[in-house]
Specification:
Elements (H helix, E strand, L loop, with lengths): L1 H12 L8 E5 L5 H9 L4 E4 L2 H8 L6 E4 L8 H7 L2 E5 L2 H14 L4 E6 L14 H10 L3 E7 L7 H18 L3 E3 L6 H6 L4 E4 L1 H4 L5 H9 L3
Parallel strand pairs: 1-2, 1-8, 2-3, 3-4, 4-5, 5-6, 6-7
Helix pairs in contact: 4-5
The chain binds pyridoxal-5'-phosphate.
The site of pyridoxal-5'-phosphate (PLP) has 13 residues, from β8 and α9.
Length: 223
């Protein structure tokens, strides 16, 4: 698909290897048919924010990697640990504990990322200065911490964006691992310049979503 070509071109433009970042297609609020079409178009990684919604939607596609990118509610930890391959959004100790416990109960290993907060408008994520300490604490719970995830600030100011992405990149180098999940439809090029290895793309692949507030309250009950 076109985004693959654009990503390869952007990687080359900033002096990186063309295969050094991949696309996570964010299919939340889109139907299973959209995922089916995306699989046919060659996408292999899918991200969802709501565990229940994702279970039916992403089931039965052999070989895809399932990414949980939503807020980790502790009462949904088993559903999340059982249904996904990589959890991007461990943002506090309770979430780490709940996921570690769920993985033990399920006998299943799942990779996790530390979500860092680099945006004044984002409610979740650990402060960047705490990322490394938090990662160490999660590893003591035997969680396989594979890197960092961040959501960019909602701004059109490219300088502000660059500065916060650099902060996330510093966190990634401190935490270690192989996954730096950064960049969405509106800011993935800046994320690639900052070293992102995984861009999370919804709108640019699937088109606009139904408004979050109405859909969420009427159909999804939080997760
Ligand atoms: C919805 C969502 C995305 C995708 O956003 P787009 O702007 O549609 O590409 C990426 N990351 C997270 C955490 C999301 O919740």
């Amino acid at each position: 698909m076109r985004l693959h070509a654009e990503l390869a071109a952007e990687l080359i433009a900033v002096g990186r290897e063309p295969g050094s970042a991949r696309i996570c297609a964010v299919s939340k609020f889109h139907p299973r048919e959209a995922v089916q079409a995306a699989v046919a178009a060659g996408l292999t990684d899918f991200g969802e924010s709501y565990a229940q919604e994702a279970t039916a939607k992403l089931g039965g596609f052999p070989g895809i990697t399932k990414h949980f990118i939503g807020h980790v509610q502790t009462n949904k930890a088993k559903l999340i640990a059982g249904g996904f391959d990589l959890i991007h959004s461990i943002d506090r100790m309770e979430a780490g504990l709940a996921v570690a416990k769920a993985m033990q109960a399920l006998g299943r290993g799942v990779r996790v990322l530390v979500q860092v907060n680099i945006s004044p408008t984002d409610r979740y994520g650990v402060p960047p200065r705490e990322a490394a300490t938090f990662a160490t604490a999660l590893r003591r719970l035997e969680l396989d911490v594979d890197g960092v995830m961040a959501i960019g600030p909602m701004t059109n100011n490219r300088e502000e964006l660059r500065a916060s992405f650099e902060e996330a990149a510093r966190c990634f180098s401190e935490v270690g691992g192989s996954t730096f999940s950064l960049g969405m439809s509106g800011d993935w090029r800046e994320a690639i310049a900052a070293g992102s290895t995984l861009i999370r793309i919804g709108t640019a692949i699937f088109g606009p979503r139904a408004p979050l507030n109405t859909t969420k309250s009427s159909r999804y009950d939080g997760t």
